[in-house]
Amino acid sequence: MERTFAIIKPNAFADGNSGKILGRIYEEGFKVVGLKKLYMSIVEAEGFYHVHQEKPFFGELTDFMASGPCIVMVLEAEGAIKKWRDLMGATNPADAAPGTLRKEFGQSLGENATHGSDAPDTAAFEIGYFFSGLELL
Ligand code: UDP
Ligand code: MG
Questions:
Q1: pLDDT at 128
Q2: Mean pLDDT (the chain, rounded)
Q3: Distance 136 CA to ligand 2 centre (A)
Q4: From ligand 1's centre to the CA of 110, what distance in Å?
């Protein structure tokens, strides 16, 4: 079993799509190991996305992630990292396949409804950034 880190981003939370997204998560067979709502500060968003700090979209991205509440989750499944990225679809909702979460709930390249870790090392960092071991029992 593998674990990945996922976010229902502020646009999807504000639009009232958290329930639908969670429904898809359960339908696809993920186990929800950790889940909480939080409202990130800019500093917290900058730390989370530190790998993107040199990118031109870093300011826009961190402003967006701190613009409202979101839901952070730890999801478990066989091949969870790829399985969750496949369910999310392409980064840009305009390029995402029909039936993917970003196609259905994303508004734009920035406000693309969900986040998912891209590799085992980033999943480990991202899970530890938001969850303690006791929250994942
Ligand atoms: N993003 C953006 N502009 C870009 C590329 C990315 O606003 O040109 C945002 C988008 O919300 C994306 C996040 O930055 O989800 C992280 O980018 P990454 O390339 O890691 O995409 P992801 O792994 O989320 O598909
Ligand atoms: Mg990424």
A1: 98
A2: 98
A3: 23
A4: 6
